[in-house]
Amino acid sequence: MGYIGEMSKKNDPVNVILAGLKREEYRGYDSAGISFFNGKPCVETLKVAGKIAALERLIFEKKPETSHSAIIGHTRWATHGIPNEINAHPHTDCGHEIAVVHNGIIENYKQLRNMLGHDGHKFVSSTDTEVIPHLIERARRTGSRTFEESVMEALKELIGSFAVLVLCSDEPDKIIAARRGSPLLLGLGEKEFFVASDPMAICEYTDRAIYLNDGEMTMVTEDGYEILNYHDGSSGKSEVVKFDISLANGHAKKGEYEHFMLKEISEAPEVIFNACKGRIDFETFSVTFGELDEFEEKLKRVKKIMFAACGTSYYASLSGKYIFEKLPDISGAEAFYASEFRYHHPKIDADTLLISISQSGETADTLEALREAKKYDALTLGIVNVSGSAIAREVDIPVYCHAGPEIAVASTKAFISQVVVLAAVALRLSELKGGESEERKTVIRELGNLPEKVALVLAAKNIIRHVAEISQKYGNFLYLGRRYNWPTALEGALKLKEISYIHAEGYPSGEMKHGPLALVDNSFPTFAIAVKDEVVYDKVLSNLQELKARGGPIIAVATEGDSAILELADHVIFIPETLPELSPILAVIPCQLFAYFVAVLKKRDIDQPRNLAKSVTVE
Ligand code: M6R
């Protein structure tokens, strides 16, 4: 994030940056830093390993004085080099006259570093970013170029993705910002400007911004800004957009809850309600989707549906795939890890609908899969939670989850909202392509019952905590589910891994006997999703028998009234009966709460687990 404004105005530049970085912390939180001028010829840089709170403490101690209001700051998620103070951004040139913060990855940094090393440049960090200030330094020295010309020259040498902000002692009242691949926007205030990765950082100060395009750079002073294409110096386009004030996501408070994760799991009933609101009419059994209206004709022609997403959003898409396939008049759908999408995209064309699913709307892999599909003229629909995010802006049809801010790194309510929105989109598509259908009515009716049923699952919190207390001693877990709940098993294992740091594997129950069973003994438990489903329930029970025969402890999520499961499982968490295709929405909650309680017992950093970021903005 960068800030520049009239000195002596209401906003203290250091505080503006700290507040903005706190809101950007979801993108990474392993180290942080700021650069500014304090009347000396060199730029002053303060950096720490750890979270923004550590930077805040350092700033409180040092009480930095800024002589110019231009200031840049960064919170990092390490790609190149361990998360320590040296590798934290900003990075500077040899003479500490240039400071740079950077998001993205410079793919040719090794070659550039060797070349610059030959020319006598000294590197102190292990990052890819550090080549940027040195490239600018070289351009500035060799051709006596201006600040602006030097940055343009340096950017042309970079291969990879970047959003960069640069300060230079030649013009201490200016910030230069540029992007390729990684998002960047310029926020417009009154005699003050902000540059940031996303609107969240600046929503407290302004609701007007310009999203820079790839290949553009902006030169910002307190008197104004200019946007250029850094390849040829031509003038850039500068459409000012007003973003929604609901972007003030960073204001979310924990309230009575100890952690955001628990708060967000507990919000499930209203999350389902909000995902359906204004879309599903439970009296007429119809689905209205304003967002889809303009594309109705194209949607009717769709022959192939593909999902691309990462992590939890990918598991939501696997769940959604089953719902799409179950409804009449939809030919089927395929789900892809977004990071693998481009390697085997089978014949995408104008009759393909690509559905990108992302809570943050900023995930680089998902964004790249979307761009890939657009190359082949696919119609693109994004199911996103954060409005104004990169994916929401780049798809043809943005569809919002309306789940409210999700702050905990472990995604919980987003999964639930994504599956519900996927069901609603599937219902609308099926309606568009066919006529009346009893099957659709059944799904709609049950969606209306879900908030109440989810509340009942949440009420079993103490039982789940008790099971967690007994089970937290284990070092490994197998998660099993079949058909609709295979994705739930995958999601359950991911939740346990990411916040408790316990190894867990998700498998389709039927696969267990093809290898993983070798792991099972009395120290290797299984968490099984064994809910009522006329097609697979008996088979799941047989799979659990196989585990029991090998002494494996079993925790099962089962449907209320099921007595057979009590004979097999050591612990049972009951959930209300629902349609099998919607059962993941209920069954995922015990998985989320189990992971949460195990992690609390293990005293983990629940909302910001180690090594992770809420939004992964590099490929
Ligand atoms: O913001 P997105 O939904 O695109 O994020 C995708 C994944 O990075 C995310 O779901 C991740 O797997 C979560 N930490 C899982 O809890």
Q: For this entry, what is the oligomeric state of its chains? A: single chain
What is the count of structural domains? Answer: 3
Strand content: 15-25%
Structural class based on helices, strands and sheet pairing: alpha/beta
What is the global morphology? Answer: globular
Kindly identify the CATH topology of the largest domain. Answer: Glutamine Phosphoribosylpyrophosphate, subunit 1, domain 1
Enumerate the distinct ligands. 5-amino-5-deoxy-1-O-phosphono-D-mannitol
Strand order of the largest sheet: 3-2-4-1-10-9-11-14
> Please, what is the average pLDDT?
94
Discrete helix count: 20
Low-confidence stretches: none
Radius of gyration, whole Å: 26 Å
**Which architecture of the largest domain per CATH?**
4-Layer Sandwich
Separation, N- and C-terminal Cα atoms: 21 Å
Q: How many strand units?
A: 26
CATH class designation of the largest domain: Alpha Beta
Provide a concise account of the structure shown:
This protein is α/β, with parallel strands linked by helices and 619 residues long. It contains 20 helices and 26 strands. The strands form 5 sheets. The chain has an 8-stranded antiparallel beta sheet with strand order 3-2-4-1-10-9-11-14, with helices on one face. A 6-stranded antiparallel beta sheet has the order 5-6-7-8-12-13.
Characterization of this structure:
By secondary structure, the chain is an alpha/beta fold. It folds into 3 domains: 2-251, 4-Layer Sandwich (Glutamine Phosphoribosylpyrophosphate, subunit 1, domain 1), CATH 3.60.20.10; 254-455, Glucose-6-phosphate isomerase like protein, domain 1 (Rossmann fold); 460-619, Glucose-6-phosphate isomerase like protein, domain 1 (Rossmann fold, 3-Layer(aba) Sandwich). It contains 20 helices and 26 strands. The strands form 5 sheets. It has an 8-stranded antiparallel beta sheet with strand order 3-2-4-1-10-9-11-14, covered by helices on one side. The model has no long low-confidence stretch (mean pLDDT 94).
